[in-house]
Every structure is written in C-alpha cells, then in structure tokens.
Design brief:
The chain has three helices and seven strands; from the N terminus they run E-H-E-E-H-E-E-E-E-H. Helix 2 packs antiparallel against helix 3. The protein is an alpha+beta fold. It has a single domain, classed as BirA Bifunctional Protein, domain 2, CATH 3.30.930.
C-alpha cells in the first residue's frame, strides 16, 4: 500500500471526507489499490463523529484527526478492526510518549484512556469497497479547551512538535500495517 496524505485545515469530518472519496471513486468504477493507504487529516473538524451517532469534539490545536482508507477485510467485524486499531494506538502512544506512569489503555473498544481520561477516540466504518478507520488524538489541549460536560472526561497528551510528528508517523505506519 502506498501512503498518500490529504491534509485540510478544517473539515466537517475526516471519516466523511474519506467516505466521499471512496464513493466518488466507486461511482466512477475507478476504485483500486491506489486508494488504499490514503490518510485524510485535518487540523480541526466541525462535525467530528463518534460511535452510535455521537459527536467527537475536535477543537484543533496540535491534535491529530486522521482517517485511514484500507481494503475491506474478509469476515471481520468493525468491532474487531477497532480493537486492533486501539491496540496500535496504545502501542504507538506508549512508544512515543514514554511516560511509565501514563500507560494507555482501551475502554469500550474505541476509547484510549490515560489516567482515567479519554485522550483518543476511534471510529471504524465499513462501506462498499473500503474500511475507514478514524482516529482522533487530543494533543496539547487544556481542560478549558473542552465543553464543560467533557472537562472531567477528556484528556490530552502533552507533546512537543517533534514528538507529535513522530507520533503521527508511527501511528500511520501501525495502522497501514494492520493485518486483518
């Protein structure tokens, strides 16, 4: 799979952008291996998505909002793909973040937690021709950057720009190399 990154300053949802890209290519009967490995990123999402129709608050800052377009797996539920992605996120954060007291864990398949706070959300969506894995990681956000109802729940990694770059690169490699 060849990596292709499409970056936006602001977008409704990286998952929705990925689905539009797949649907446009499918409608033109032009879906092929070149599409797989595409990553849609944005500095800010205005309509970030969570599971079961919930929203994913995406205020921007240095956070990572990315959706990965992968080939559809055979006989594997979205929940299993999300679990694989969550494990990849945890391993990547642990490798780059390297703070022993801040070990990431998975809660409810799609949330990555550190010290009881959600630092990452994952949304996997299967559509004809592809599977989309959306990942949002809060970086360098303060409690006040979140709406009041999320201030006790949401957390954020504190990374310098080099660590953030390494995290995105390692995360991209981990997700594109998932085996399913």
């Amino acid at each position: 799979m060849k990596l292709r990154v499409i970056e936006y300053e602001e977008i409704d949802s990286t998952n929705e952008a990925a689905k539009r890209l797949v649907r446009d290519r499918t409608a033109a009967l032009d879906i092929n291996d070149e599409l797989y490995g595409t990553v849609i990123t944005a500095k800010k999402q205005t309509a970030g998505k969570g599971r079961r129709g919930k929203t994913f608050f995406s205020p921007g800052g240095d956070s990572i909002y990315a959706s990965f377009i992968l080939p559809p797996p055979e006989n594997l539920a979205e929940q299993h793909i999300t679990t694989l992605a969550g494990a990849a996120v945890c391993e990547t954060i642990e490798t780059v973040f390297r703070k022993p007291a801040d070990v990431p864990t998975i809660k409810g398949v799609n949330d990555v937690m550190i010290k009881g706070r959600k630092v990452c959300g994952i949304l996997t969506e299967g559509i004809p021709g592809a599977v989309i894995i959306g990942i949002g990681i809060n970086i360098n956000l303060n409690e006040k950057d979140f709406p009041e109802e999320l201030q006790e729940i949401a957390g954020s990694l504190l990374l310098d720009s080099d660590e953030r770059t390494r995290l995105f690169k390692a995360l991209t490699e981990a997700i594109l190399n998932l085996s399913f």
